[in-house]
Amino acid sequence: MIDLKLLEKPEAVEEYKKALANRGANADVFNRAVELSQQRKIDLTKAETEKAQLNKLSAEIGKLKREGQDASALMAEVDQLKQRFKMSEENAATVEADLHGLLLVIPNKPHSSVPVGSSEKENKVVSTVGEPTKFSFKAKEHFEIGEKLGIIDFDRAGKTTGARFSFLKGAAAQMERSLIQLMMDVHANEHGYTEMIPPFIVNDNSLLGTGQFPKFKEDVFNLAGTNYYLIPTAEVPVTNYYNGETLLETDLPKSFCAYSPCFRSEAGSYGKDTKGLIRQHQFNKVELMTFCHPSQSQEVHEQLTSHAEKILTLLGLPYRKMLLCTGDMGFGSAKTYDLEVWLPGQNTYREISSCSNFEDFQARRANIRFKPKDGGKPQFVHTLNGSGLAVGRTLVAILENYQREDGSVAIPKVLQNYMGGKTEIK
User: Fold this and answer.
1) 341 class by beta-carbon count within 10 Å (0-12 exposed, 13-18 middle, 19+ buried)
2) How confident is the model over 257-292, as pLDDT tens digits?
3) pLDDT < 50: residue spans in the chain
4) CATH superfamily to which 4-103 belongs
5) Which class does domain 120-425 fall in?
6) CATH 1.10.287.40 spans which residues of the chain?
7) Which residues are catalytic?
8) Contacts with 304 (C-beta within 8 Å, 6 or more apart), sequence order
9) pLDDT of 50
10) pTM of the shown model
11) Is 58 left (phi over 0), alpha (psi -120 to 50) or beta?
């Protein structure tokens, strides 16, 4: 959520309008929010003036009564003023509620270092690590490899549940579990994150806090008859771990690595990636999450992204780091790096991690602050998160990059101990 004070400063309003234009966002909602902000100020001023007048008249009535004089005329005036004051308060509350509703659907302002662009075509390649894997034979896609090895079953998952679900069997299930353990071990033991397994169900207030609600409500699964929802990412419960709390500056930064299954309706994605594990309704992910001081967030963003990169490096997977342009960033992000892994079966790079700095956007929605050590006024923390990594897509990348001509798959050395000493799947 944006700072309400921005709507009261003409120069800040123009700056935000420009930022929205750079994102390709509709400015009508923002313009309406500016109008409501001005109306709110007028209504609050009127209510305060009427309240002060009420207090003044009440004091005069008290004085007249103490002196034994007739106060009926003033009392009648007070009754009328009370009605006007009540109406002013109700008008202010209505405007406040309408304004709050608009603020919830206005996207974040991009950081000044984000390139301006309208689509992914204008994203910037920051670095490329490793050469795209080449074979002397025609590379297969992961679902072909998995089905031939008998370790992934889409057909029975379709019978059991429906489209965009899968059964992982044998070595695929073991590798998925091993990848989760590898990621959690590296992030906790080498990078200093506190391990966390969060609730996989959250309430609507938590989804409001991270920015999924109200704008992206159709993207999550609701438990019928409740205000409970299956999480689309561990970002939601972990961000709300401190919802409504005030931390100490000396406690910052606070960093967590969280494993969870993720559930997404994939609304609007019909026809995209219908085969395979790339776009499933249910998948596993290890999420990195940090709460930090505003002055640290740019540095922490670089650091968090490098931690996600470390997993790709350990697995020997070629990838590139992309800085997303203004038109391709997520709703709440101020700056995002995408890590894209090379998939030889598709002959392209595909996103495997998205690492974002939300600055104070989520903290305002979830009311997460910190108390400065100098005793000043509490401030909003900055929140950052990123996939460290999407586990299913990592499995996809291994199957495609480590495939052999005979249909077998080599197991990356770093995973072999996790998989009981196995060196290949055949």
Assistant:
1) buried
2) 999 999 999 866 666 777 899 999 999 999 999 999
3) none
4) Serine-tRNA synthetase, tRNA binding domain (1.10.287.40)
5) alpha beta
6) 4-103
7) 264, 279, 351, 354, 393
8) 288, 290, 355, 384, 385, 386
9) 86
10) 0.92
11) alpha
